[in-house]
Amino acid sequence: MHSVDIAPARWAQLLARQNHPETQPAESADAAAALYGPLADAKGPFVLAQVGQSLDGRVATEAGDARDISGPDGLKHLHRCRALADAVIVGINTVKADNPRLSVRLVEGQDPIRVVVDCHAALDGSEGLFRDNGADVIVFQGSDAPLRSYANAEVIRLQPTSGGLDTGTMLERLNSRGLNRILVEGGAGTIRHFIAEGQVDRLHVAVAPLIIGAGPSGINLAAVATLAEAMRPPVTVYDLGSDTLFDCCLRPQPLSSR
Ligand SMILES: NC(=O)c1ccc[n+]([C@@H]2O[C@H](COP(=O)([O-])OP(=O)(O)OC[C@H]3O[C@@H](n4cnc5c(N)ncnc54)[C@H](OP(=O)(O)O)[C@@H]3O)[C@@H](O)[C@H]2O)c1
Fold first, then answer.
1. CA-CA distance, 29 to 76, in Å (whole number)?
2. Is 206 within the bounds of a domain?
3. How far is Cα 119 from Cα 202, in angstroms, rounded to an integer?
4. Residue 53, domain member (yes or no)
5. The domain containing residue 137 runs over which residues?
6. CB 212 within 8 A of CB 56
7. Which has the minimum average pLDDT: 66-70, 127-131, 247-251?
8. What separation in Å is there between the alpha carbon of 194 and the centre of ligand 1?
9. pLDDT tens digits for range 128-181
10. Residue 205 covered by a domain
11. What is the CATH number of the domain that holds 55?
């Protein structure tokens, strides 16, 4: 297991790599570079999905309490990922349940553009992210849903497929706006669409040492009949401090490097 304890000066170097993609990657081969380099150095489309969960794979209680499942170092990791991303994507249920700000508060860095997948136009405009004067908001809506627009948000309407909104099309729309480094923050329904459609380069599962016992899980893919059909990605394990991170490589070669 690799230990990741990032001093402010080291974090500043990683941020500089993200802001100046012309700089050469991997000026140092430490655990921080191995963990954050793929996102920081991406010169084209790169998708990281991240889940913060309990030892028994839950992301909330049955009653919906989801606040601070991750410990302080897991939360810091999430904020580092946000700071390195151009845009962070969440599903409509997460906005409704958690009213998240999706901002960078625990480390230095810029807030990413906030993107909500709202296939059926269920956002009503009262949600915090439309009113908090934070980073810009983009809403992906199905073109068959009632047309809804919101103050301070761009609405992009997409023709739904039988599986919902096509994640590749969403990523293309974001890429065309210069948003290449994408963090898919959840929940499970949203991450499922991106993984099932083969769009995720890395999956970070940050495990906090608590057992909730029941409640929704953070990763919820289609069922397989046998363990031989289970995904077994190459995984590197990092000791973040309060949490343990499993960095799963779902696509060895990012699209941009092909
Ligand atoms: N701990 C963490 O890391 C973390 C992070 C974020 C959220 N959460 C928790 O996760 C829970 C919410 O998760 P969730 O899975 O219920 O909801 P969600 O992922 O926030 O939203 C799911 C909704 O968005 C729709 N959606 C997502 N991608 C879509 C696509 N490509 N096309 C069409 N529709 C799409 C889903 O439609 P379909 O039903 O058709 O798929 C579903 O209606 C909350 O309890 C929240 O606290 C935990």
1. 21
2. no
3. 25
4. yes
5. 42-199+221-243
6. yes
7. 66-70
8. 11
9. 999 999 999 999 999 999 999 898 899 999 999 988 999 999 999 999 999 999
10. no
11. 3.40.430.10
- Determine the residue of 59, 90, 195, 243 to mutate for testing ligand 1's pocket, defined as the one with the most ligand atoms within 8 A of the Cβ atom: 59
User: Does the pLDDT at position 247 exceed 70?
Assistant: yes
Pocket flag, ligand 1, residue 47 (CB < 6 Å): no
Q: Give the closest residue (by CA) to ligand 1 atom 10.
A: 187
The whole-model pTM stands at 0.94
State whether the beta carbon of 188 lies less than 6 angstroms from ligand 1: yes
Please report the pLDDT score of residue 152 as a whole number. Answer: 84
pLDDT digits (tens, 9 = 90+) for 174-189: 999 999 999 999 899 9
Best substitution site from 50, 92, 157 to test ligand 1's pocket, by max atoms within 8 Å of Cβ? 92
The count of structural domains within the chain is 1
> Is residue 161 a part of any domain in this protein?
yes
**Minimal CA–CA distance to 151: which of 173, 127, 122, 168?**
127
Q: Which atom of ligand 1 is nearest to the CA of 186?
A: 6
256: confidence class by pLDDT, cuts 50, 70, 90: low
Question: Would you say the CB of residue 189 lies under 6 angstroms from ligand 1?
Answer: yes
Atom of ligand 1 nearest to the CA of 70: 1
User: Among candidates 165, 168, 201, which has minimal Cα distance to 183?
Assistant: 201
Tell me whether strands 46-54 and 87-91 are parallel, antiparallel or unpaired.
unpaired
